[in-house]
Amino acid sequence: MESSQSTLILTQDELKKIAAYKAVEFVESDTVLGLGTGSTACYAVARIGELLQQGKLKNIVGIPTSKKTHEQAVSVGIPLSDLDNYPVLDLAIDGADEVDPDLNLVKGRGGCLLREKMVEGASKKFVVIVDETKLVKHLGGSGLAMPVEVVPFCWKYTLERLQKMFVHAGCVAKLRIISENGEPFVTDNGNYIIDLYLEKEIGDLRVASDEILRLAGVAEHGICLDMATTLIVAGELGVTIKNK
Ligand SMILES: O=C[C@H](O)[C@H](O)[C@H](O)COP(=O)(O)O
Question: Which SUPFAM superfamilies does this chain map to (predicted)?
Answer without folding.
Answer: D-ribose-5-phosphate isomerase (RpiA), lid domain, NagB/RpiA/CoA transferase-like
